[in-house]
Amino acid sequence: MMRHYHRPPHHMTPVPGGITPADTDDAFDGDTTTPSPAPTPTPTSHRRIRHAQAGRRIVHRRVSSTRHIVDGRSQGLAPTESDTIDGAALPVGTGDDGMPAIIPPSAAPLLATLRAWSMHAVSGISAVWSRRPRYSYVLYLVVFVLMTLAATLAIQSSVYVEPSYAPDAQVDEATRAAQSIRGQLTVFVTQTWLTHRYQFLLNLLILAIVYAAVIALINRFWVATAVYGIVMAIYAVASKFKIQIRKEPILSADLNFLTGGNTGDILTFIPQDGLQQVRTAIAWLAVFLAACIALQFLDARRAFIPTYWRKPFAGPKHIAGNLTRLTAVLSTIVFLFSFTWNLSSPDSWSARMAASFGDEPHLWDGWGDAATNGPAMTFLRLAHTNAMDKPEGYDQKAMAQIAQRYAHEADTINATRSGNLTDSTVILILSESFSDPTRVPGVSFSEDPMPKIRAIKGATTSGYMLSTGYGGGTANMEYQALTGLAMANYNPSLTIAYQQLVPQERWVATFNQMWNAKYGDTASQATHTFMDNMYFRARNYKKFGFSQFWTLNGEHKITGCSPIDRAWYVSDQCTYQQVLSRLNHGSDPSQFQQVVTMQNHMPYNDWYDDNQFKQADTSSDLTDTEHADAQTYAKGVQHTDDATADLLTQLDQVDHPVTVIFYGDHLPGIYPTAYANPDNVLGLHESDYFIWSNAASPSHTAKLPDDAARYTSSNYFMAQAAQHMNAKVSPYLAFLTAMHAQIPAMSIPAASGHSDGKPVYLNAAGEQVAPKDLTPEAQRMLRDYRLIQYDLSVGKHYLKDTSFLTAR
């Protein structure tokens, strides 16, 4: 019988087992040793050897990339495989002990077959993979259009809310359908051809350009689609929650909230019924992301625009591809930047372009602007912040005249006052979301949630504070109280002073600095029983002159505090104890203590045990969710009521003058039924406040008359405190005192349900007064106020070099 040998080409050195150096990468590089000849097969083993050799030929082609661990060392596969004759076993590879692993001869054909099948499978997959198609640009265009349409409709629907009707309301089905989210969205789209208002197309265009910019930057169509889709989905969900809670859409200023290190706190702002929506959105986004990843691998077209950066000038094809990519990136980004930068200027090209689509800005009402013109336009419109336009007549001479005018006013006031503000410790308490729930239309309880604070208000200077927000706006109330500046005087594009204005200011004048000037920098301290990076407080407070900022996570860390029952946030009682522990006594210097609580922050998820307000709830015409939220909120108010009364009792034991300014920053956003009536909106922006002095203070029993205290806004608090304490004032506080007498309260246009885009002004009876109906003196002082505010915040600080801020 003829014998068959594996005969390598003449240029290859034969090695044991029939492997040649050409079959491996590096096993025998440089090896010139002549190996022993391969064993000669006998006729009886010819068939077995033929099968084994067939299997080896397949394996040996891939053996160069294989490594085995032998005696703890990584080595190349040694050529030790051989056949045996006459039924001997076939040693293949190595065993655990470094010796050849033995397989029975009968398994060799099966092993060879399996190896052959696996190689055929790999070859088949490789062939299919190499022949996978490049998806058509027509397909990309279809996906582009569908994704842009979906994004536009999703974020637009996020600014609409389902209407609520009283149980006995007679509303026909057609009206209900038209006022539903789908109905409002349908009107927004169909007005394009019914009334020739093209806001839908304008938003579609803006989002299409954003999508195109992402594609041009990433240059991978499916990756860019995944990024764009996920961002749009997150925006839509976040906008829906913010509209539900605060009645305003997502703004560019909200991005500062995230970049300020607050990303981990986002979940605390999700409403009670929103977690399931978040889970559903995450599940769908996971499916969407997986689909985009799969399409990216299945699409043989790697780059959307062929680009050649390694050899950019190798030929016309390279140059054209690179120029196309650069043009796409620059044109989309430059357009978006220029459009956004100029949009807030009425005579700019972008404003005229938007107007040609029917855009009608409602800067004073972000929610209304988003619903009418689209959230994409609202976001861009407020992205470029021009805090305040330069008032007519602003110059150094005008500011010197103002400083002199109110220096005379201060002298007049101080002639009848005996003390100084800095003789007392002042504790400014912002009580998160505190308000009287029984003032809300439709909300009532058979038990008073705040009897102690109600009694305190009856015995001291107190009333209602007009807020700039509903369901939010804490930082703006805080900013007004500390600076005396009014958000109503800024442009509507400035929505959060702590995030859009203060970080850019070189110098900020705040009232606590009066205590620093007299007692040193340690006189000012701040306490916030949450994180220090919220609204950039950590950096802003340093700029304000607070030497210590006590929080749950900052340099000065609060310990030993916990929530009540199952609540999320630190109790007011523990917050107050933190303040008391750092309070000076006796002859120690006076202090300024800034306090921001968190106990009553939303959500209101049935936190408290033994909540008697579930049984005491006598509210009418509320939804089940409103009932549940109001009951939990009322119990939280009662806890605040008890803790605040206890705080004042302890302060009465302090042998040093202490004055407390206590106020709720805004109402909680849990009253959609009441808010749906425009007549209720103003009242839903009025929270409770009082100014109280302890037994060691000369003003312990002071109470300002109602016409001087019943209505106010937080920018007047320090002027009112000076009046309550019979303390001397600076020219600035003299101006605020006179301004408060002319216009007791002011806020941004959104604080009124019947606003025409003008700031909201209240008289001493709490009635709204149109700007044109103000007295000539009030209008003159408003002009002075704008000049003062411009100079102190964005102007040249002429007043800083005068005695305008110094008590006389």
From TrEMBL:
GO terms for molecular function: transferase activity. Residues 1-10, 45-55 have a biased composition (Basic residues). The keyword Cytoplasm does not apply. The chain crosses the membrane at residues 137-155, 198-214, 221-238, 281-298, 319-341. Residues 425-726 form the Sulfatase N-terminal domain. Residues 1-55 are annotated as: Disordered. InterPro entries: Alkaline_phosphatase_core_sf, Sulfatase_N. Keywords: Membrane, Transferase, Transmembrane, Transmembrane helix. This is Phosphoglycerol transferase. It comes from Bifidobacterium mongoliense.
